[in-house]
């Protein structure tokens, strides 16, 4: 999966490219696609017919992924008669407000984070009973919660990514007899073994990302808060019910420092701030690094020809905490919402909450979803398969990326810059967190 600059979208999982695209599909005069006679409509019978209707969808998905997306609902259009007029944009966060306030809201908007979605709750249409039924049947409660504002469900999960991963070389593990750690203590023991076996930098990292420099370090912190303080404290932290510089957050960042600010583990600490996140894990391929913490979408950063698999050149394992039986999971994703409630809009909304769409989408190219009706055998690669297994595991406690939920001046600004200073300048942990706390809006 590719990546968008978080400076623009506060999403770290799509490649940014210039411009927006509009991708309507060709329709016949009766409202069905030209090749409808060749489509088996059995899977779409439940959606009925809505001839000569049109539904607009607006999201951040563009270019090759937009082509895959629109191809995923081509048969749905043919069988229902609904024309989907799709538009992807590189400026969603700004333009959605302009469009809504200007009376030009799309019928359906796919929001890149629940915090932004919540700011439009008074203008969004609540989920129908049928959509709520589909959400309950197809997603864990954590995902339903993130689509809910003040007790009302507005958004259903679209795509997803997992951030709690450590990338490694299966060949190195096999050659050295290493096993995947299941606790933090085992992870540190493994780190020391890698160091003792001659790899000078057991961990590699990079947090440079243009205007968004620092965001990979914030992901580290979020994962550690979940593991050292627990999901309840994490939720309090996100909502500012406890201060950003609370002792529990200090302790979490200090644990991050045992790796990222330890020259015995990472070599030149300051160089992490000038190493791009895209290049951060690449030393694994030439044996100069053993481990790299980065999200599932990092699979797209390995050079062409790299085999990503348990028996390949690189693979990933779950970042463990103190207790192997306790599995907090950090991730992110988008949410399908509606600004209109016409029958054809409701039908598309149901389609995008069920399993048929997701199975079609996964067949078209790399795509990760938390929808439990999606067939994991359709996963484009083993990391997507592993991600989906974790996302639908009811024993896993999922939490959305904290900085995407916090006010922009904190999560998409001060948090980044202070983590950069913490690494590049060796800034004191408490002082860095004090500065972030001071940026929280009154």
Describe the protein's architecture and organization.
It contains 19 helices and 13 strands. It has 442 residues and is of the alpha/beta class. The strands form three sheets. Strands 1, 2, 3, 4, 7, 12 and 13 form a seven-stranded mixed beta sheet that branches. The longest helix is centred in the last third of the chain and has 17 residues, at 408-424. 49% of the residues are buried.
**Low-confidence runs of at least 5 consecutive residues:** 1-34
In CATH terms, the superfamily of the largest domain is Periplasmic binding protein-like II
The residue fraction in helices comes out at 25-40%
The first-level CATH class name of the largest domain: Alpha Beta
* Radius of gyration (Å): 22 Å
DSSP strand (E) fraction? Answer: 5-15%
- The overall pLDDT average reads 92
Which topology of the largest domain does CATH recognise? Answer: D-Maltodextrin-Binding Protein, domain 2
Q: For the record, give the distance between the C-alpha atoms at the N and C termini, rounded to a whole number.
A: 37 Å
């Amino acid at each position: 999966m590719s990546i968008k600059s978080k400076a623009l979208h506060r999403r770290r999982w799509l490649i940014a490219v210039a411009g927006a695209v509009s991708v309507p599909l060709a329709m016949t005069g009766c409202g069905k696609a030209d090749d409808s006679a060749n489509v088996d409509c059995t899977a779409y019978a439940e959606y009925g017919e809505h001839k000569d209707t049109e539904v607009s969808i607006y999201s951040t998905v563009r270019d090759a992924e937009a082509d895959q997306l629109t191809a995923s609902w081509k048969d749905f259009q043919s069988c229902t008669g609904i024309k989907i007029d799709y538009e992807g944009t590189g400026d969603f966060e700004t333009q959605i407000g302009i469009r809504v306030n200007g009376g030009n809201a799309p019928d359906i908007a796919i929001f890149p984070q629940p915090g932004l979605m919540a700011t439009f709750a008074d203008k969004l249409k609540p989920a129908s009973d049928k959509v709520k039924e589909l959400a309950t049947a197809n997603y864990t409660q954590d995902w339903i919660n993130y689509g809910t504002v003040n007790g009302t469900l507005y958004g259903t999960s679209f795509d997803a990514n997992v951030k709690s991963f450590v990338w490694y070389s299966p060949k190195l593990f096999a050659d050295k007899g290493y096993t995947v750690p299941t606790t933090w203590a085992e992870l540190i023991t493994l780190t020391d073994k890698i160091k003792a076996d001659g790899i000078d930098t057991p961990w590699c990292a990079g947090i440079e990302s243009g205007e968004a420099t620092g965001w990979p370090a914030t992901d580290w912190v979020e994962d550690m808060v979940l593991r050292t303080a627990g999901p309840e404290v994490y939720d309090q932290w996100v909502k500012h019910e406890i201060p950003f510089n609370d002792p529990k957050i200090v302790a979490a960042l200090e644990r991050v420092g045992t790796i990222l600010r330890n020259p015995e583990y990472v070599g030149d600490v300051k160089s992490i701030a000038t190493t791009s996140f895209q290049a951060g894990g690449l030393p694994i391929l030439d044996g100069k690094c053993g481990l790299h913490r980065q999200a599932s979408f990092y699979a797209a950063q390995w050079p062409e020809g790299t085999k990503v698999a348990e028996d390949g050149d690189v693979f990933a394992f779950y970042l463990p905490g103190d207790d192997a039986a306790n599995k907090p999971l950090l991730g992110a994703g988008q949410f399908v919402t509606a600004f209109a409630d016409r029958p054809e809009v409701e039908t598309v909304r149901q389609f995008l909450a069920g399993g048929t769409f997701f199975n079609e989408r996964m067949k078209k190219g790399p795509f990760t979803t938390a929808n439990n009706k999606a067939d994991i055998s359709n996963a484009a690669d083993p990391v997507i398969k592993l991600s989906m297994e974790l996302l639908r595991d009811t024993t896993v406690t999922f939490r959305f990326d904290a900085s995407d939920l916090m006010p922009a001046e904190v999560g998409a600004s001060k948090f980044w810059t202070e983590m950069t200073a913490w690494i590049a300048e060796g800034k004191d942990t408490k002082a860095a967190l004090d500065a972030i706390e001071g940026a929280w809006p009154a």
